[in-house]
Amino acid sequence: MKEQLRACILKGIEGCFADGTLTSGAVPAISVEKPAHAEHGDFATNVAMQMAKAERKSPKAIADIIVKKLAGSSDLIESLEVAGPGFINFFIKDSAWRRVLNAIDTAGDEYGKSTAGAGKKVQVEFVSANPTGPLHIGHGRGAATGDAVASLLTAAGFNVQREYYINDAGNQMNTLGLSGLLRYKELLGEQIDFPENCYQGDYIKDIARDAIAKHGDRFLKAPQEEGVAFFAKMGGDLILRGIDDDLKDFGISFDNWFSEQSLFDEGKVPSAIKEMQEKGHIYEQEGALWFRTTAFGDDKDRVVVRSNGVTTYFASDIAYHRDKYARGFDWVIDVWGADHHGYVPRLKAVVQGLGRKADDLGIILVQLVALLRDGAPVAMSTRSGEFVTLKEVVDEVGRDAARFFFLMRRSDSQLDFDLELAKRQSADNPVYYVQYAHARIKSIFDTARERGVQPDFENVKLELLESADDMSLIKKLSLYPETLESAALNFEPHRITYFLQDLAGEFHSFYNKSRVITEEPELTNARLFLLHCTAVVLKNALTVLGISAPERM
RNA sequence: GGGCGGGUAGCUCAGUUGGAUAGAGUACUGGCCUCCGAAGCCAGGGGUCAUGGGUUCGAAUCCCAUCUCGCCCA
Q: What is residue A34's predicted lDDT score, i.e. its pLDDT?
């Protein structure tokens, strides 16, 4: 609707240039907005104000000229007026609004999708937790956000791949191996001293038990290195499988799992370093190799290879991101916990060092989650092993509520997740409020069927939808495509949760004021059509967030 | 000490990328089921948009400084 109006305004202004009523010949970018107040119309534009300087006329005078030209020029416009300091307000014809319903019905599941992405290859990398322990609630927010952003981008016409990066090459794997070996010895009756920096959680004991079942006590006498290596490998694999299971229960599956170790096995780390050296981004100082990230705005240079010859995580990250672009992704998006924000400048530097634009790497920082139970904080500490896992949360509140809550706030603000609220089946729980709207519509269709009403969507008399409540519901539905697109391009899934709450509210309000199943068959049919379209949009918006749209609850 | 993110109604948060009289949920108060799902709706009160300056026709939004909370780095 906005786009149609924009085209219409552009044509009008060009018409003014053609007949000389306006003279500058320069058309600014036309912004069409939805005014905050209904009496200012359905849409408003400020072009007249933007053109004031070039035209050497007052905004009002220009607006008058444009309004005169536009009057009666389009079947979209019911009326238009000049208001305030030079706004042009547009009132759209009801008949034009109603055509939105046909678009929704025709497109169905596809309604809201766009081709803005033009098939461009995008990779979204998210979660990427170390395989040293189960996913906790913070990973859950990253998982929900990454998955939703990937779905949003798909809906916006991008060709999206979901990837999980496994940090299986660093020192933490040795720590995992040692933790497993010590618990193993302990279970077999040895006195051990369990260091504080080892992983404390009970899952380590499960790994040790598993090893005993399969391999008996053979690592008791084997050299320490052999035991550590065994438990690192075995524990890592087991934990990774558990992570995959937890994510699947959360409705997330990755297209690709990428191992850090594979970068070393395939020689990609040295070759990446070599390329950067050749391009002059890496220099040697005091026996270490440094990446000149300051050349791209970082506040200091970063070590790639230490003087003892050991590569840093940063070296892996260089090789990894180089590999992503080599695999043909035009746009690479990383979803990180906000505590990693310090890495943003150096990774942006790497991307530019590779000869790409800084914007070819998008980074979404997801802030912390505070878990509450009836308003009181739930203690969490990774070190002690007493953290709340994603699995526990999903088991307790359900997948839909967990996803909705994780996506309810902007990523860069901290999130309070109240377990009791998420479980509650009442109006103050936004998930149920939204899902209830969908179930309620389905229930109305059931009732219609019981009463022998046969919906006939081939022959709907749209003009019967004329009440203020009909129209405001239709107008809300029409906002979905632009909401979806801006949510996608800005990595802001929370816009969809807000839209859903708005739309559900609009529907519930409509329902309380307007009878759907009436004595007049044609009106009943038209209103059923309106509800059918509402259900389509509710379902599409829920689906893109990975949340179900139940028929009954 | 430097950097990143935040500060909007009692509480939790939106705010369409600079637009007109700043919104929602929740809580509070009062109403609405003989009727398609009351898991719902309607009405009301509630604000120095942290503070001070600047940019312009116009600022919660952009710039500078200060205060404050969280995190990262030394």
A: 87
pLDDT higher than threshold 80 for residue A53: no
Q: Which nucleotide is nearest to A52 (CA to C1')?
A: B57
Strand B bases with any atom < 7 A from protein Cβ: 2-7, 12-17, 19-27, 32, 35-42, 57, 70-73
Q: How far apart are CA A40 and CA A24, in angstroms?
A: 28
Helices (H), A85-223: 94-107, 137-155, 171-187, 203-215, 218-221
Say if CB A148 and CB A544 are below 8 A apart: yes
Query: Is residue A133's pLDDT more than 70?
Result: yes
| Sheet strands side by side (includes A376-377) | A376-377, A369-373, A415-418
Query: Which is nearest to A488 in space by CA: A476, A478, A501, A499?
Result: A499
Distance B44 C1' – A125 CA (angstroms): 49
Residue type, A408: M
Question: Per DSSP, what are the bridge partners of residue A291?
Answer: A282, A302
SS3 assignment, position A267: coil
**Distance between CA atoms of residues A298 and A318, nearest Å:** 15
Task: Find the nucleotide nearest A365 (Cα to C1′).
Answer: B5
A164 and A123 Cβ atoms separated by less than 8 Å: no
Q: What is the dihedral of CA A405, A406, A410, A411, to 10 degrees?
A: 170
In contact, A250 and A143? CB cutoff 8 Å? yes
Contacts of A349 (CB under 8 A, 6+ apart): A291, A293, A295, A296, A297, A298
- What predicted TM-score, i.e. pTM, was given to this entire model? 0.94
pLDDT > 90 fraction of chain A, expressed in percent and rounded? 73
- Between the CA of A311 and the C1' of B16, what is the distance in angstroms? 46
Integer distance in angstroms from the first to the last C-alpha of chain A?
35
Three-class DSSP category at A254: coil
